[in-house]
Design a protein that fits this description.
- The structure holds two protein chains of two kinds.
- Chain A has three helices and four strands; from the N terminus they run αβαβββα.
- By secondary structure, chain A is of the alpha+beta class.
- Chain A has a two-stranded antiparallel sheet with strand order 1-2.
- In chain A, α1 runs antiparallel to α3.
- Chain A is elongated.
- About 5% of the residues of chain A have low confidence.
- By secondary structure, chain B is mainly α.
- The model of chain B has no long low-confidence stretch (mean pLDDT about 85).
- In chain B, α2 runs antiparallel to α4.
- Classes of the chains: A alpha+beta, B mainly alpha.
- Chains A and B meet through α1, β1 and α3 of A and α2 and α4 of B.
Chain lengths: ~150, ~140
Amino acid sequence: MSLASVFNIAGSGMSAQTTRLNTVASNIANAETVSSSIDQTYRARHPVFATMFQGAQSGGDSLFQNQDAGGQGVQVLGVVEDQSNLDARYEPNHPAADAKGYVYYPNVNVVEEMADMISASRSFQTNAEMMNTAKTMMQKVLTLGQ
Amino acid sequence: MSISFDKALGIHEQALGFRAKRAEVLANNIANADTPNYKARDLDFSAVLAAQNEKTKSGSFALNMTNSHHIEAEGLGSGDESLLYRTPMQASIDQNTVDAQLEQSAYAENSVNFQASFTLLNSKFKGLISALRGE
């Protein structure tokens, strides 16, 4: 029944937005986590969203996936690390400073992360509201003939 | 004389099915509002209505039955031909064509239309019940 799949679709949307909110929380929490080497410094993390199709969801992942068919929700393909340059600051008195007196700050843009957080929160709300509307519609159908 | 549910219920049964299907398509648009390269979809009501009218006119359903073992195809004929892509009002930098406000209003409108179709279908059933009771 197609109304029931609205629950799956909205649920997948809420799950994806939760992942996004989690990465935002992780980024903001680690925005000031300094390190003395480039390799060990925290890098901003971002989720990658992709549309979920019917075949992929039921397990039978076909090579000839019907791109023309309607999607069946959203999935998080993975979480990628931002490869842009880290912020190197000259702070020789810092306990984590390296031999040249530099400490490395993460490439997290807190303002961007806050905007991302609001966007994720709104999208989550929309999905939850959509689920509620579908529930009302289904309950209405159950009263057929009464 | 036999009672035919198809004749008694008219188009409302198919209309309700169409509304449920469209709710699914619009829900998918809203869920993918942040997916890069996603293209918003929608069902074309007039195309589905025209297809249904064509079926009604021709007397039988679209498939030809050339063998007595064939089973008559029934239900809503909303194939891929009625599932279209939405024209974006404002291009997005990540190639996503979902306008969240547009999709939300379409979803709300579809929900109201669903209730309207349901009310009409329900009144058809009530008519049948009162006819059966003969009160």
